[in-house]
């Protein structure tokens, strides 16, 4: 089985990193490939473009993946950009992190807390999407993690002049916060009744979540890996269950 993970930004600096974090998460029979979008200008940064003009490029890339024989695809952003429209024209299964996390969270516990990195109005977006998915009741609370970067002036300059360096600076901060503000906020949500926590940013994907998971003490849903798992499950359901050898 072959799954495409699309990081909907205009730089490929982290393509290999995401591929490493996702490798093997759905079993040895699933090949996970990663890519980014061919975007121009200011879109070449580690952040999703603020305006949704990239949706056309995203949908074209997904359609090409379907034509190339991929079994499923993941839109690798926790705001699930372009997902609803993609489902309308694709035959192959496609999902995104928030949709996958809500479905898994509903199985794991009655209530799930969502952690989001600050920088955009995530509360409104996530609540609207959860309502559309029919899973708003699963969310116990949405908690914003402050992402104070070491040097905002440096980051702004790098975003303009050296987006690759900006990517690594942003990634390093996102990983560091798992042992700092994000952990304190997750523990507070658990004390208030959450039985699962969604690490709601794709920079929190992969093995680095394990120490955070151990410290929180309840299931922690990985945004990238959970989306791949749901996409694979949907692809297998679409193909049908093969009869075991020797079965009647």
Structure description:
- The chain is of the alpha/beta class and 248 residues long.
- The chain has one domain (2-239): 3-Layer(aba) Sandwich (Rossmann fold), CATH 3.40.50.12500.
- It is 45% helix and 15% strand.
- The protein contains 10 helices and 8 strands.
- It has helices spanning 15-22, 55-67, 83-89, 97-108, 122-133, 152-161, 163-176, 181-191, 209-216, 223-239; strands at 2-7, 31-36, 72-75, 94-95, 112-117, 139-145, 196-199, 220-221.
- The strands form 2 sheets. A 4-stranded parallel beta sheet has the order 2-1-3-4, with helices on both faces. Strands 6-5-7-8 form a 4-stranded parallel beta sheet, sandwiched between helices.
- Strand 1 (2-7), helix 1 (15-22) and strand 2 form a beta-alpha-beta unit.
- Helix 4 (97-108) crosses helix 10 (223-239) and helix 6 (152-161) runs antiparallel to helix 7.
- The radius of gyration is 18 Å and the shape is globular.
- 44% of the residues are buried.
Tell me the count of domains.
1
The CATH architecture assignment turns out to be 3-Layer(aba) Sandwich
In terms of structural class, how would the helical and strand content be classed?
alpha/beta
Distance between the first and last residues' Cα: 26 Å
Give the mean pLDDT. 90
Helical proportion, percent range: 40-55%
Strand content: 5-15%
Sheet with the most strands: spatial strand order: 2-1-3-4
Please outline the major beta sheet: 4 strands, parallel
Return the CATH class: Alpha Beta
Q: Briefly note the CATH topology name.
A: Rossmann fold
Per DSSP, the total helix count is 10
Poorly predicted parts: 243-248
Number of strands: 8
User: What pattern of helices and strands is seen along the backbone?
Assistant: EHEHEHEHEHEHHHEHEH
What overall form do the CA principal axes indicate? globular
What Rg is obtained from the alpha carbons, in whole angstroms?
A: 18 Å
